[in-house]
UniProtKB/TrEMBL annotation:
Ribosomal protein listed as a keyword: no
Species assigned in the record: mine drainage metagenome
UniProt domain Pirin N-terminal: residue ranges: 9-119
Protein name per the record: Quercetin 2,3-dioxygenase
EC number: 1.13.11.24
UniProt keyword terms in alphabetical order: Dioxygenase, Oxidoreductase
Name of the gene encoding the protein in the UniProt record: yhhW_4
């Protein structure tokens, strides 16, 4: 089964300093049909205006991944981490027993555009943790590069969840196939460009939800940047 979710069907909130698209129910956006997919709970596409950001706020028992597309994201947390996340970096924060953090765009002339992803952990009450890694663009070129996985396989950030996240860049004849084991769910989120997922054409902001499928095949990209999830059902 393949289901396409169009970009314009996502939730949207304009707070002035923050513009946010919600793939799943979040904050003031509620859709009973879109509460998550497998153990994937949140994908928010956020744009933070220059000189603004999220003040200190808390999380608990969630694996939180930030994937910066443009601009920079300044992060501080109660674990003592003070980091800047540029495009090409992936950040993982395990909220565990509880963490407080802030996220700001300190630039004066550039919007920070990023995806924040929440995945439900398979163990609650762990110690909070932080990890940040650079994923070179050449590793994503015409391929699915593993960026988050249980145990941090192949240089990915380590998450405490039964899920794997891949990123890829595709154009023209470039293609990739990801096998899905029986009982797994797949989720494809197209960041930019256009792409075919198992022959189904999508454009930027669209998603494809897969269930009872043996593989995810990506073809016919046009300047495409994509995230692909292999998820616990």
């Amino acid at each position: 089964m393949l289901v396409t979710r169009k970009s314009q069907d996502r939730g949207y909130a304009d707070h002035g300093w923050l513009k946010s698209y919600h793939s799943f129910s979040f904050a003031g956006y509620y859709d009973a049909a879109h509460m998550g997919w497998g153990n994937l709970r949140v994908i928010n596409e956020d744009s933070i205006a220059p000189g603004t950001g999220f003040g200190k706020h808390g999380h608990q028992d969630m694996e939180i991944i930030s994937y910066v597309l443009s601009g920079e994201l300044a992060h501080e947390d109660s674990m003592g981490n003070v980091q800047t996340i540029p495009p090409g970096d992936v950040q993982r924060m395990s909220a565990g027993t509880g963490v407080v953090h802030s996220e700001f765009n300190h630039a004066q002339g550039e919007t920070t555009h990023f995806l924040q992803i929440w995945i439900i952990p398979n163990v609650k009450g762990i110690a909070p943790g932080y990890e940040q890694k650079t994923i070179p663009a050449e590793k994503k070129r015409g391929a699915l590069c593993l960026v988050a996985s249980p145990g941090g396989v192949n240089g990915s950030v380590a998450i405490h969840a039964d899920a794997s996240l891949y990123a890829g860049l595709f154009d023209k004849a470039e293609r990739a196939v990801l096998a899905l084991d029986p009982g797994r769910k797949g989720y494809v989120h197209l960041i930019r460009g256009a792409l075919a997922v198992n022959g189904r054409r999508i454009i930027a902001g669209d998603a494809v939800l897969l269930e009872n499928e043996s593989r995810i095949e990506l073809t016919d990209g046009i300047d495409a940047e994509v995230l692909v999830f292999d998820l616990e059902a």
